[in-house]
Amino acid sequence: MTTIAFDPLRPTEFSYADLLLREAEPQNLESPFSALRDRLTPGELFYVRSHFPSPAIDPASYRLTVGGAVQRPMRLSFDDLRRLPAQTRTVTLECAGNGRSLLSPPVDGVQWHLGAVGTAEWTGIPLASLLDVAGLSSTAEEVVFEGADRGIPAHPPQPPQPITYARSVPLNRADDILLAYAMNGQPLAREHGFPLRAIVAGDYAMASVKWLTRIHVLREPFQGYFQTIDYAFWDEVGGHPVRRPLAALALKSQIARPVAGDVLRPGTSVLVVGAAWTGHAPISRVEVSCDGGLSWYPAQFLDPHEHGVWRRWQWQWDVPGRCGLHVLMSRAIDRDGQTQPAFRDSRFDSYCIHHIAPVPVTVLTE
Ligand SMILES: Nc1nc2c(c(=O)[nH]1)N[C@H]1C(S)=C(S)[C@@H](COP(=O)(O)O)O[C@H]1N2
Ligand SMILES: [Mo]
Q1: Residue ID of nearest Cα to ligand 1 atom 24
Q2: Tell me: the pLDDT tens digits for 182-236?
Q3: Ligand 1: residues within 6 Å at CB?
Q4: Ligand 1, residues 117, 163, 208: which to mutate, most atoms within 8 A of Cβ?
Q5: Ligand 1 mean position, distance from CA 165 (Å)
Q6: Are residues 123 and 264 in the same domain?
Q7: Residues 72-110, buried b or exposed e (16+ Cβ, 10 A)?
Q8: Which distant-in-sequence residues (6+ apart) come within 8 Å of 250 by Cβ?
Q9: 20 membership: H or E segment, kind and range
Q10: Does residue 229 sit in the same domain as residue 257?
């Protein structure tokens, strides 16, 4: 059980001065990934990805409704929620569109570079405890999280009227889900979903619904806009294309430093630093190349494995005496023997960009 000392009725105010503006309204702000330092991303450096304007929710009149395929539908105030046993868990959020600006030819959508990803310590109520109180119907399959934000989505086919942001997760994932009201020991900021949001460990962050006001349990797969049209891809079953929601984070590593275009001195020693994450089998190795992928060297992990949390890593590079262009790369390898791919899987359209991103640097004498 976790107790935190703060006034839960007030959202945390952050200065977003250090984030990169990708879109002013709705608010889309990118974290400078090159600033990666601690395992936890400070709140003021955490990316913001919103589809509609951020709603201002008054915590005093706030209610969370829990209904659908449950035995005891509920309507809970913020105080009711705060009385339930809380848990704290570290989870990495990555937007499914992270890395989009690296795609060639360019694709539509917010042009995220490397920084639509961050890690925080989230405190809140495990979904499983709430569902225990509500009592699941024996035929329940999925849980839909609905936010208070609404609008008409930017991309066709557009629904005929404004919709709320809603996403479902299969109920067998309940142990990976927290209903969080705090981030890094502070109340959520408005931009991050004050007063309550879902946090789904191991999935792309579109599942981590902000401004959570309704939990609806379904007996069949949810077919909402952000489940089937957006944040979905064409899979194939028996030769038929079928639409499936994106889910688990794909195996990925990124180099934070050096940054593409950096100029380094020959014969010096440089620390190559980055992070790797996945929603699948644990990452067992990260390897770094300094010759465009011909040879690979093992990096050293700075963090232990924890499901749904990135592992920072580093590798000491003895910069050669040869001047010119050098291409750094990193790749993650998981316990199932999967390796981060070298090339883009175009089935995922403008999402799940997890192939190796080369970082060209120049070695130059003064
Ligand atoms: N209600 C609501 N929840 C939402 C979204 C949204 O637009 N509305 N965006 C989702 C997406 S696509 C991402 S990547 C994460 C971003 O969370 P953050 O802004 O706290 O970083 O929130 C998810 N939850
Ligand atoms: Mo996202």
Answers
A1: 209
A2: 999 999 999 999 999 999 999 999 999 999 999 999 999 999 999 999 999 999 9
A3: 46-51, 93, 95, 147, 149, 165, 192, 205-206, 208-211
A4: 208
A5: 9
A6: no
A7: eebebebeebbeeebbbbbbbbbbbbbbbbbbeeeeebb
A8: 278, 279, 280, 352, 354
A9: strand 20-23
A10: no
Name the residue range of residue 357's domain.
252-363
Q: Are 142 and 199 in a shared domain? A: yes
The protein residue whose alpha carbon is closest to atom 4 in ligand 1 is 209
- Between the CA of 206 and the centroid of ligand 1 the distance, in Å, is 6
CATH number at residue 149: 3.90.420.10
Looking at the structure, tell me whether residues 209 and 344 fall in a common domain: no
With respect to residue 56, please indicate whether it lies within any of the assigned structural domains.
Answer: yes
Ligand 1: residue whose CA is nearest its atom 20: 192
Per-residue pLDDT reduced to its tens digit, 155-177: 899 999 999 999 999 999 999 99
- H-run or E-run covering 79: helix 78-83
Task: Report which protein residue has its CA nearest ligand 1's atom 23.
Answer: 206
Query: Do 125 and 271 fall within a single domain?
Result: no
Which residue is associated with the tokens 């997890």? 354
